[in-house]
């Protein structure tokens, strides 16, 4: 009888505290549309991970995912399927470093994972892309979508410099981010890199520039793409071809685990990509390492 009593007490304790839900590696949880209207999370085995269905469900990032209801109000779940933030904010999206952006009246604000409004919706953002925090700083665009400024997680400006004129292509603009301590910036569309004080470290001199990764960044002059280090010095001897920037700008990519996909064809290096003579069909894509060695050439 004593053992039965102890079992009953244990069961009561579990019910009172809540039974621990099973968690899964977030990389294995894939949002899947099942009936044309609702999403579930599916494991590699094809098994449904959670019983819940959602009107929208995102991929997981840093162990969390965004879910939305039919009223386009969004919340956050963890990898056990537990809703840690109820449906509470419209048009929620990942903003990096535990922050999330939301859109209200066509303006962007930020919350933390607990749903606390850290920065009210006072910034622009109708170009498709969404701002992200990186190295504690976020580039946002003013409410007229005219210039970028840089803020911390409390909405304070981190330095006085602004960047007039948006970055990107015809379809969308993007928000510059700090990586390796540097951020792309421009002066009348001559590109260089600034540091966390807003000062030029690599003065504006390129026709385009992309974010740093693993100590290197891709920059372009006319049709010539090259890689530089954090001092602005050329880091890889060989040259590479440009990409079509008409849609989304100079989104050239970045190194991951020491490799990167590039356009190996540099035969049009002396032609400006806006010149009608530049032919993007002549691209030859492949993969290189950080020394510029060609590791792979893709079939045409």
Give the CA-CA distance, first to last residue. Answer: 77 Å
Which architecture of the domain at 185-300 per CATH? Beta Barrel
Q: What is the CATH C level class of the domain at 185-300, in words?
A: Mainly Beta
Structural class: mainly beta
Question: How many helices does DSSP assign?
Answer: 1
Strand content: 35-45%
CATH topology of the domain at 185-300: Lipocalin
- Could you tell me the mean pLDDT? 91
Shape: globular
Number of strands: 27
- Uncertain spans, ≥5 residues at pLDDT below 50? 5-19
Radius of gyration: 24 Å
- What composes the largest sheet? 4 strands, antiparallel
Task: List its traits.
single chain, 300 residues, mainly beta, Lipocalin, four-stranded antiparallel sheet
Q: Could you explain how this protein is built, in words?
A:
- The strands form eight sheets. The chain has a four-stranded antiparallel beta sheet with strand order 3-4-5-6, with no helix packed on it.
- It is mainly beta and 300 residues long.
- The protein has a domain at 185-300: Beta Barrel (Lipocalin), CATH 2.40.128.
- Strand 11 (133-134) and strand 12 form a beta hairpin.
- It contains one helix and 27 strands.
């Amino acid at each position: 009888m004593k053992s039965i009593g102890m079992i009953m007490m244990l069961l009561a304790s579990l019910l009172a505290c809540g039974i621990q839900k099973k968690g899964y590696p977030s990389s294995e949880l894939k949002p899947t549309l099942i009936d044309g209207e609702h999403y579930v999370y599916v494991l590699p085995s094809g098994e449904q991970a959670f019983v819940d269905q959602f009107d929208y469900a995102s991929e997981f990032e840093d162990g969390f995912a965004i879910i939305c209801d039919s009223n386009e109000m969004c919340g956050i779940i963890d990898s056990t399927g537990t809703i840690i933030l109820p449906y509470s904010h419209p048009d929620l999206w990942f903003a990096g470093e535990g922050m999330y952006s939301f859109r209200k009246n066509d303006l962007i604000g930020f919350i933390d994972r607990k749903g606390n409004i850290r920065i009210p919706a006072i910034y622009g953002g109708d170009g498709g892309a969404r701002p992200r925090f990186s190295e504690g700083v976020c580039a946002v665009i003013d409410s007229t979508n005219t210039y970028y400024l840089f803020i911390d997680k409390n909405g304070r400006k981190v330095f006085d410099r602004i960047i007039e004129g948006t970055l990107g292509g015809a379809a969308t603009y993007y928000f510059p981010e700090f990586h390796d301590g540097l951020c792309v910036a421009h002066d009348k569309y001559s590109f260089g890199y600034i540091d966390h004080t807003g000062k030029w470290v690599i003065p504006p001199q390129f026709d385009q520039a992309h974010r740093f990764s693993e100590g290197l960044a891709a920059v372009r002059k006319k049709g010539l793409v090259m890689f530089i280090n954090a001092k602005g010095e050329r880091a890889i001897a060989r040259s590479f071809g440009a990409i079509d920037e008409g849609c989304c700008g100079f989104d050239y990519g970045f190194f991951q685990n020491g490799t990167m996909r590039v356009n190996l064809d540099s035969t049009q290096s002396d032609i400006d990509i806006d010149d009608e003579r530049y032919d993007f069909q002549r691209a030859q894509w492949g993969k290189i390492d950080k020394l510029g060695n060609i590791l792979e050439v893709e079939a045409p």
